[in-house]
Write a structure and sequence with these properties.
Cofactor: adenosylcob(III)alamin
CATH class of the largest domain: Alpha Beta
Strand content: 5-15%
Structural class: alpha/beta
CATH superfamily of the largest domain: Methylmalonyl-CoA mutase
Pfam families: Met_asp_mut_E (PF06368)
Strand order of the largest sheet: 7-14-13-12-11-10-9-8
Shape: globular
Distance between the termini: 45 Å
InterPro entries: Cbl-dep_enz_cat (IPR016176), Cobalamin-bd (IPR006158), Cobalamin-bd_sf (IPR036724), Glu_mut_E (IPR006396), Glu_mut_E_C_dom_sf (IPR014714)
Number of helices: 22
Largest sheet: 8 strands, parallel
Protein name: B12-binding domain-containing protein
Keywords: Cobalamin, Cobalt, Isomerase
CATH topology of the largest domain: TIM Barrel
Length: 625
């Protein structure tokens, strides 16, 4: 029987890649010949390719499918015999309504507006093949890597070492009409100096209450509605706030964001389109300091407008806001753009005494990330920022679910960051840690989501994190409402004052493991480079840094991960990471013991098991261990 060729791709501005990665492996294991095109593709590109495939599968998880496919239809001539499937999270609405029928009128044969498990999907796909007189592939007895066509690694270009942010400012500000309102650095600096310091509020609150400072995620289309959210959070005692930026702005699609703003259908706050005056009015209307959270491809204009408007914390970095989110984004270009952001922040400190907090999103792809890899990425981004004059940094870590490992990770991250900064001559830096509640696919029920959120907050307290980015129980099926946020806040406040326990002997064992692995990686990466950005480029080119499930062509893509018998995250395949033989053997032994216990024969099976453990509800309670 000839192979069934399938074209698999993410569309639009969506950056999610973990589900596509699993689907890619699963399809190959079931006998399909997979051509994987990664994320951020235009669906129109695939019409002409239909003749070469029996199945075309498109995905988006950001809720903007209606915008991406507004004028898109697939005729029978376009299909040329291929079957078309679309799925993911196609709408920001809690109830998809008639969305499936609407997409079927566009020519799709199968439509999944929300999450669907793989078993259901394959049953319905087989029925579709049968009804169209097509032979359905037979599962392979063993996963075959030959069944997947991989992207090749792109080599990384040279850094831009000659231009400062001052030299590039006029071009950056001219990239949108609202940029000019941020042009006066002196005026901006005087205004910023009057705003509450994000980092200072976190430090004072943590010192007083000995609990992590709670921070909600919040991003809606309109300025008025955003202010309403902020005022409500403030009334509930929230001490720090954040603008969550929409995915079109993140991709620098300001025209698309303007259209989404008119339709009130954005999945976040289009800060650039609102402009300095509107954002400044929001900042002045509420007491808590405000951070900008995003994942913007080119963050320079967003940083200019955000800081000019009074935001005193700006999140992101050249690794964390590139490799997990983009397919063809040069790491050198990313490093250059973030150097601009760091120089801008340093300017406000040097000339106006305003220490902008710079947070690094160490959660990376958010799924099965070994702590040592998250910590090293954080520290490298920290070094690039403070070498440009940044004084306040926050290092983020995403909870994985093994309480002992999560507590140990926060401890090692803070300690190793302090030690590394001091060893490199940076002794006047404020370093804070951020605990992100579980970032991967949530449980499929509200009850289980609430139990996760409650226990997760207790883990953050036990870990001693400075700040807690919390989730809501709506995470499992839609973008949270104000009511969802309020209920989550109350739940977490209750949890943080409830007594929780940890296995401190196991925590110390995990600390030793994490510290050893992180030190081995850092030593190799920094040993032969005098410039931190050169060290980062060299590390990715050699596979010494390799982000699991990353969609980027600048990522080696050899490292895979899984859970051990205690649900701690380990390296399933170390790729080219410069870990010692002892560290590699330890990871191998732990993973093999898990496979033996669960009667799993292949790595792909283990990966599927672990990635879907939570959404399938195949666990007793949170934390997992």
């Amino acid at each position: 029987m000839p192979n069934c060729k399938v074209l698999l791709a993410g569309i639009g501005k969506d950056s999610h890649s973990v589900g596509l990665y699993l689907l890619k492996l699963s399809l190959a294991e079931r006998g399909f010949d997979v051509d994987f095109r990664g994320i951020q593709n235009t669906p129109e590109d695939f019409k002409s390719l239909s003749k070469d495939y029996q199945l075309v599968m498109l995905s988006t998880l950001d809720g903007h499918a209606s915008l991406y496919l507004q004028s898109f239809t697939i005729s029978e001539q376009d299909k040329q015999g291929a079957l078309w499937v679309i799925g993911g999270n196609l709408t920001i609405d809690a109830e998809p309504g008639d969305l499936a029928n609407a997409f079927k009128t566009k020519g799709f044969d199968l439509v999944y507006p929300k999450y669907v498990d793989l078993t259901t999907f394959y049953l319905e796909l087989e029925q579709l093949f049968t009804s169209n007189n097509k032979a359905f592939p037979q599962p392979k007895t063993k996963y075959a890597q030959a069944g997947i066509h991989w992207h090749s690694l792109s080599r990384i270009e040279e850094l831009d070492t000659d231009r400062s942010f001052m030299q590039a400012r006029s071009q950056v500000l001219a990239s949108h009409p609202n940029g000019q309102a941020a042009a006066d650095l002196q005026k901006n600096g005087r205004f910023l100096a009057q705003q509450p310091s994000f980092s200072h509020i976190v430090s004072c609150s943590k010192s007083h209450y000995h609990l992590p400072v709670l921070q909600p995620r919040s991003g809606v289309s309109s300025a008025g509605e955003q202010l309403r959210y902020f005022e409500h959070f403030s009334s509930q005692g929230v001490e720090i706030l954040s603008f969550q930026i929409d995915s079109l702005t993140r991709n620098n699609d300001y025209n698309g964001a303007e259209e989404g703003l008119k339709q009130n259908k954005l999945n976040g706050f289009p800060l650039i389109n609102h402009g300095v005056e509107s954002v400044s009015a929001i900042c002045q209307a509420v007491a808590p300091p405000i951070q900008v959270r995003h994942s913007t491809k080119d963050p320079r204009l967003l940083a200019e407008i955000s800081l000019a408007a009074g935001c005193t914390s700006f999140e992101g970095g050249p690794i964390c806001y590139n490799l997990p989110y983009y397919k063809d984004y040069s790491l050198a270009e990313s490093l250059n753009r973030w150097a601009y952001v760091d120089q801008l922040c340093a300017y406000y400190y040097q000339h106006h005494g305003v220490a902008i907090d710079r947070e690094f999103f160490g959660t990376l792809t958010g799924t099965l990330i070994p702590p040592s890899l998250a910590i090293v990425s954080n520290i490298l981004e920290m070094l690039t920022a403070i070498s440009h004059g940044v004084k306040n940094v926050s290092l983020g870590y995403a909870e994985q679910g093994c309480r002992s490992q999560d507590i140990a990770a926060i401890a090692v991250m803070g300690e190793l960051a302090e030690q590394t900064a001091a060893a490199h001559g940076f002794n006047d830096i404020t370093i804070q840690t951020v605990f992100h509640q579980y970032m991967a696919a949530f449980p499929a029920t509200r009850e289980r989501s609430e139990q996760l959120i409650y226990a997760s907050a207790q883990t953050a307290v036990l870990a001693g994190a400075d700040r807690l980015l919390y989730k809501t129980a709506a995470e499992f099926n839609n973008i949270p409402s104000l009511k969802d946020n309020t209920e989550a806040l109350q739940l977490i406040q209750s949890a943080m004052h409830d007594i929780a326990t940890a296995d401190w002997e196991r925590v110390n064992i995990e600390k030793t493991i994490i510290h050893q692995e992180a030190t081995e990686l850092l030593t190799a990466i920094l040993s032969h480079q005098t410039d931190y950005r050169d060290a980062i480029i060299n590390a990715f080119n050699r596979g010494w840094l390799d982000i699991p499930f990353s969609p980027s062509r600048y990522n080696m893509g050899k490292v895979t991960t899984a859970r051990d018998n205690n649900y701690a995250v380990r390296y399933l395949d170390c790729g080219s990471l410069p870990l010692s033989a002892a560290s590699q053997k330890r990871n191998y032994d732990m993973v093999e013991a898990k496979k033996k216990k669960c009667h799993i024969s292949t790595n792909a099976e283990l990966l599927e098991h672990d990635l879907l453990l939570i959404p399938r509800g195949q666990y007793r309670q949170w934390p997992l261990s």
